[in-house]
Amino acid sequence: MPYYHTWTIGCQMNKAESERLDSFLKQQNYQSTAVVEEASLVVLNSCVVRQSAENRVISKLNALRSLKRSRPNLTLALTGCLVNSDLQALRNKFPYVDYFFKPGETPQWLTGAAQLPKVLPYKPSPSTFVPIIQGCNNFCSYCIVPHRRGREKSRAIAEVLSEVKELVRRGVKEVILLGQNVDSYGHDLVGKPDLADLLGELNAMSGIARIRFLTSHPKDMSSKLIEAIANLGKVCKQISLPVQSGDNDILEAMRRGYTVEYYHQLVLEIRSRIPAVALSTDVIVGFPGESETQFQRTANLLRELKFDTVHVAAYSPRTGTLATREFKDNIPSDEKKKRLHIIEQLQEKIATQINAEFLGKVVLILVEEIKKGKWQGRTQDGKLVFFGDNGDYLGQLVEIKITKTSPWALQGKVELNTIN
Ligand code: SAM
Ligand code: SF4
Fold it and tell me: How far is the first Cα of the chain from the last one, in angstroms, to the nearest whole number?
């Protein structure tokens, strides 16, 4: 049996697609190996959302070029967001790569078939990603994703339901529904079902314990969806709602389609309907022209709204995006780093306080894996929990008494084993 090796960076969508690619390769009688030198096929699943990610992909490609020189029979394939429509340009740039395929596509050259089999993760984790909508229609001015992943395309509800049913049959307890813009799910389907409808159907499915979804765009978060999250027992009270900036002019330049006031109001509505909700957000610092005052508005918004988690990134110009065409990347790199650090420190303090509230409490977690002798799982609202115990807890819902907290995670011991 030939060996294959995959290397993946980037968002959850990339991870989900690599899991499915993995199954597909196994169906084609390949066997996986962690040792790249052993493989006859190497697939790179790339990310180019920021220059730092792109640099890592390029250095990986360079290393593989050297490997290929010593082993000319090695097949190299590249997928993910580095793959654009201009295949010829890619071939010119990376002549040692044998095949390119777009994110989410299946490598057709391996089967030759026009219609490719639908594949599920080979050995699904108790918590498994399920992509429900591909692409993005938003074209935020800084973002490369719509240019690489194309327009939004939702999967039919029946297809998602039958896939989740099969995953549950294989032992999955939790599904994480994925989309770059997950709350716009369904607008392109017949009858226009929406995410709230899908959540309702999944909630009624037996065998499934928890349902998560990400990432939500603030402009598409409807009151109907908020009600569904509040009322459906299996839907986790956790919402990922990227704000990107706390300044209206920057939001406008980013083409986000909402104002700070709208976002505030939305968070108020969510928190009044779902009091125990955990909110996470993304922000970009150092967007072209961002003044110190504008940056402080972002920091103030985080101080005021107190998110459970904040993902902060320094603006990185991406060729082909509107921001790169229209604005000069005029915030010096040191200044971007300084702003990034300020946000990180601020959020560390906020998360320390939020997580400290859990000390001494008992939380119910779904155990996802064991790493370095510690079991790891998540609470219903997405908090990462570690515990040490000799039992086998994989895929079980377990009650843990929290004995230690940090801004990033909670630690504890088994309180009562509620095997499910
Ligand atoms: N669809 C989601 C949304 O509406 O925010 C997020 C998807 S995007 C691929 C993931 C995150 O990467 C964004 O939230 C943004 O903070 C960050 N990002 C995207 N483009 C970026 C850029 N050019 N520079 C810095 N960060 C960027
Ligand atoms: Fe990128 Fe904006 Fe689409 Fe998110 S919503 S993927 S940030 S274009």
Answer: 38
Q: What is the pLDDT of residues 308-351, one digit of tens each?
A: 999 999 999 999 999 999 999 999 999 999 999 999 999 999 99
CB 49 less than 6 A from any atom of ligand 1 = yes
| Ligand 2 atom, smallest distance to 256 CA | 2
- Separation between Cα atoms, residue 109 and residue 44, nearest integer Å: 16
Are residue 183 and residue 93 in the same domain, yes or no? no
How many domains does one find in the chain?
3
Verdict on whether the full-model pTM lies above 0.90: yes
Q: Are residues 335 and 194 in the same domain?
A: yes
- From 177, 282, 307, mutation site for ligand 1 pocket: most ligand atoms within 8 A of C-beta: 282
The DSSP result for 226-252, as a single string, is HHHHHH-TTB-SEEE---B-S-HHHHH
> For ligand 1, is residue 143 a contact (CB within 6 Å)?
yes
**Does residue 112 belong to any structural domain of this protein?**
no
- Cα 328 to Cα 8, 106, 294, 334: the distances in Å are 31, 38, 17, 16
178 lines ligand 2 (CB under 6 A): no
The range of the structural domain enclosing residue 263 comes to 118-356
CB of 143 within 6 A of ligand 2: the answer is yes
Flag whether 381 is in a domain.
Answer: yes
